[in-house]
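Figure 3 (text version): structure tokens given as input.
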């Protein structure tokens, strides 16, 4: 539809715009120009969900059972753990939400529009269809609209298309490749990078393309995190085990020991409590919260605690290229002249390099041809770079990335734009447009008083208007051989993913620069050379990619850039080999889901694809059984971010819709931050398993005395009371266990593949180690402590005491011995195979404070009369303390010996595997 038809349909005027009354009426009928948020979870629901997980429900029920059994203290203590954990979990998620809300950037607050024939400034949410917007470089575009006037207009549409380069816009209609490739239409959520324009607003708010995608994302269901599924499974397992043991012990106590019904019930309850890890929820919550804090320091902000662990399970990352893998800062790295090629050092929008020839810095006074090219690059340029005064943020540009790269190139040569512009003032400009793909300026040359024409643009567009060439200071007619040589150089650069910009000049032969037109100016030019540039990889990306490969994490690049550029970067930074398949957006559209599902199994790069294609790619990766993390910053990325197991939005350049859909926001837009977050996610999962190992071995020690009670048919009195069991679970065990939740990454954690999806928190290895190693020793030592206390009072010459002070002293020794075994256990559980002495015994301060608390609590339980009466404990003597203090050191040394043999076994396996590989290489 033409602008005149649109103005008629929208009842507006291109000359005067809407009237104030018309705009007010439209605002009432069409609504405000805002992107509505999806249905938000109420504060009450968000609060209550922290108290209604499967594990939380199990603890509520356990508390009820304890109270019904007459042990009110026990029930209240279990409920208190549940309440404290729920409050802690809610607070952490609330804090994360506040932080992400603070990151969200809004659509532009103010914009200039024409109303009543006058230019006025209004709030962006008051724009209505029919308004005329006045836009200039740096403005964010708040509506979908049609360009009615423009001058050198370029727009960054990467938020919609993923294409890193600005696109040209003008008043003429032309539909290119892609949904948004319409030359006279601009879209909400994009940004003007160059030029000026008057735009007729056609669609606002949720009716814009931005709004439609936001609506699609808001209606999409979020996936349940693997950790939530696993914790629910673990809770069911533990519930079945605990209640089965409780019922079994209840029956055995009645029929074999002939215990009274009430006592049997309390006894069985003690067994249930012993096997329910009351500290699991607090430990998981603390581990996740600690993980989010560590990640935040590493520029990764998590919106949901469960997402921490999901990151650790990730085995596929679908990543954008521009700004994530690369710096999003166009950098000139070569200058090509017909007789010379110069290298340019340094990367990014900083003057951190030099122009060199054969490895030596050039002297511009001896390089006249190079000096001319640099002068053209400097003066034929409308872009400026703004640096942060505190040097904390990357520079921002007002203009195009290409011209920003040229500015830095001339800086490296020692040229100053302000000085050159003053000496060579601009007399006339023929702006860049999409048809010519050239920009021309006429500058005053003070040396000879003449005017000179400077032109830059795409190689084909420059060569077509050149009839001469500059070679080593001499101008001569350009030949076909010259053109072949130039084109070959350009093609060689393109193979390596580099872009070339051509430069030309001539003296102005017109009397009046103001009379200059494209036809009488852009002809018979002298070709000078090429500036060759690229968006360089981030410095940290190489190590990050190596870590991914070591960790068996596959990276799939998904970009709007060309196939050559995408593959060049992917190979350069090590994402893929040179044999990787490149699938373009056009090829992707023609592929069936089955074909795509098969394609993503191999080495693959996606180029020239639209962000909406990423949703399909993520879906097919998930169909292959992968846990997928996907990055994005644009509006069209949002569905893919929501679909992915972990959606990762860019905090610097990301749109509100992308941030709203994501699970994690990168505050530095850096791929390396994703890898650091994955490492922390693996650490969290490992720490939860360490907690389980630690807590289960004490459960074994708690249950073993009761087993002795049963198999002796009551001849051995219960060496541990129900309240003493609870003391271990909620008292002596809890703080050291929480310390395990904050343990740092164990060396080599990123040298292992992600855990298989069918693996579980509670596995055979943990059960075997908990019951058959740590728990076995703890059971023997704690039971030995019980008999040791009786031995000091005449056993075996007198029967074991079943009541009174001596019995209380014996059960106290059992309790204290379990506590001291747990001191060794918490230290041993800190690493799987790494020596405790390597990471440092005292390096985890939370564990050290937990051990100190454990010893103090045991001491208080032993000697404070009030606590003695509540928990059934009694004072112990010096010989008992010697027994207790002697427990931890042998247990730690014994486990160090086990870890040493495990390390040797792993080392031998690796050496054997390397030997096989070397033999294979020789054969091949």
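Below: residues designed for each position.
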């Amino acid at each position: 539809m033409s602008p005149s038809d649109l103005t008629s349909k929208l009842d507006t005027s291109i000359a005067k715009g809407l009237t104030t009354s018309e705009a007010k009426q439209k605002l009432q009928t069409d609504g405000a120009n805002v992107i509505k948020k999806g249905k938000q979870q109420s504060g009450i629901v968000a609060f209550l969900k922290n108290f209604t997980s499967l594990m939380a429900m199990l603890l509520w029920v356990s508390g009820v059972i304890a109270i019904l059994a007459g042990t009110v203290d026990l029930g209240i203590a279990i409920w208190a753990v549940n309440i404290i954990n729920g409050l802690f979990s809610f607070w952490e998620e609330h804090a994360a939400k506040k932080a992400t809300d603070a990151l969200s950037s809004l659509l532009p607050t103010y914009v200039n529009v024409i109303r009543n024939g006058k230019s006025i400034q209004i709030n962006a949410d008051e724009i209505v269809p029919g308004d005329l917007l006045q836009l200039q470089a740096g403005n964010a575009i708040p509506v979908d609209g049609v360009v009615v006037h423009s001058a050198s207009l370029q727009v960054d549409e990467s938020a919609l298309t993923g294409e890193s380069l600005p696109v040209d816009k003008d008043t003429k209609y032309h539909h290119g490749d892609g949904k948004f490739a319409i030359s006279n239409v601009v879209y909400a959520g994009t940004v003007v990078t160059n030029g000026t324009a008057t735009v007729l607003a056609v669609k606002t708010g949720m009716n814009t393309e931005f709004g439609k995608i936001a609506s699609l994302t808001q209606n999409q269901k979020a996936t349940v995190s693997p950790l939530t599924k696993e914790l629910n499974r673990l809770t069911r397992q533990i519930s079945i085990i605990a209640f089965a043991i409780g019922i079994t012990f209840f029956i055995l106590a009645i029929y074999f020991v002939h215990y009274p019904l009430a006592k049997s019930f309390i006894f069985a309850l003690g067994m249930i409590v012993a096997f329910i890890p009351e500290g699991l929820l607090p430990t998981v919550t603390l581990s996740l919260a600690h993980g989010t804090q560590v990640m935040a320091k590493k520029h990764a902000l998590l919106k949901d605690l469960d997402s921490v662990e999901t990151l650790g399970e990730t085995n596929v990352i679908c990543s954008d290229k521009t700004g994530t893998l690369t710096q999003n800062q166009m950098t000139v790295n070569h200058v090509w002249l017909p007789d010379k090629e110069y290298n340019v050092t340094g990367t990014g929008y900083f003057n951190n390099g030099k122009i060199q020839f054969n490895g030596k810095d050039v002297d511009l006074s001896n390089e006249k041809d190079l000096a001319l090219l640099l002068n053209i690059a400097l003066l034929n340029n409308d872009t400026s770079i703004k640096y942060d005064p505190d040097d904390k943020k990357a520079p921002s540009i007002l203009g195009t990335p290409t011209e920003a790269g040229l500015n830095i190139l001339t800086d490296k040569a020692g040229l100053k734009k302000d000085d050159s512009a003053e000496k060579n003032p601009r007399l006339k400009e023929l702006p860049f447009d999409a048809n010519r793909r050239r920009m021309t300026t006429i500058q005053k040359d003070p040396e000879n008083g003449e005017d000179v024409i400077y032109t830059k643009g795409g190689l084909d567009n420059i060569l077509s208007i050149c009839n001469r060439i500059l070679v080593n200071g001499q101008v001569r007619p350009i030949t076909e051989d010259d053109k072949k040589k130039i084109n070959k150089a350009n093609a060689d650069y393109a193979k390596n993913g580099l872009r070339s910009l051509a430069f030309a000049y001539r003296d102005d032969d017109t009397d009046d620069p103001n009379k200059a037109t494209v036809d009488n100016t852009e002809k018979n030019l002298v070709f000078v050379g090429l500036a060759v540039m690229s968006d360089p990889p981030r410095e940290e990306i190489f190590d990050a990619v190596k870590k991914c490969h070591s960790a068996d994490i596959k990276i799939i690049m998904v970009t709007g850039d060309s196939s050559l550029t995408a593959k060049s970067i992917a190979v350069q930074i090590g994402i893929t080999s040179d044999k990787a398949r490149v699938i373009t957006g056009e090829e992707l559209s023609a592929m069936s889901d089955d074909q795509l599902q098969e394609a993503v199994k191999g080495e693959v790069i996606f180029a020239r694809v639209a962000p909406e294609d990423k949703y399909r790619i993520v879906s097919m990766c998930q169909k292959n059984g992968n846990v997928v993390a996907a990055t994005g910053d644009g509006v069209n990325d949002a569905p893919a971010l929501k679909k992915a197991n972990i959606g990762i939005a860019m905090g610097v350049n990301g749109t509100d819709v992308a941030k709203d859909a994501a699970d994690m926001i990168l505050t530095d837009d850096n791929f390396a931050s994703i890898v650091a977050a994955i490492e922390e996610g693996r650490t969290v999962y490992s720490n939860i398993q360490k907690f389980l190992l630690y807590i289960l071995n004490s459960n074994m020690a708690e249950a073993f005395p009761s087993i002795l009670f049963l198999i002796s048919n009551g001849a051995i009195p219960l060496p541990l009371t129900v309240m003493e069991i609870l003391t271990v679970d909620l008292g002596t065990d809890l703080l050291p266990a929480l310390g395990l939740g904050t343990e740092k990454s164990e060396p080599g954690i990123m040298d292992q593949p992600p855990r298989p999806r069918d693996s579980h928190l509670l596995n055979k290895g943990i059960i075997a180690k908990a019951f058959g190693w740590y728990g076995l020793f703890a059971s023997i030592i704690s039971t030995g402590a019980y008999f040791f206390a009786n031995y000091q009072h005449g056993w075996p010459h007198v029967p074991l005491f079943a009541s009174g002070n001596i019995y209380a002293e014996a059960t106290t020794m059992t309790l204290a011995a379990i506590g001291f075994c747990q001191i060794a256990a918490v230290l041993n559980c800190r690493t799987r195979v790494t020596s405790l002495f390597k990471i440092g015994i005292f390096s985890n301060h939370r564990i050290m404070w937990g051990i100190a608390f454990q010893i103090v609590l045991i001491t208080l339980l032993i000697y404070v009369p009030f606590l003695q009466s509540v928990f059934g404990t009694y004072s112990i003597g010096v010989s008992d303390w010697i027994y207790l203090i002697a427990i931890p050191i042998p247990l730690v040394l014994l486990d160090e010996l086990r870890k040493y043999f495990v390390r040797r076994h792993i080392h031998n396996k690796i050496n054997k595997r390397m030997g096989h590989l070397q033999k294979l290489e020789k054969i091949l």
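The longest helix spans residues 671-711.
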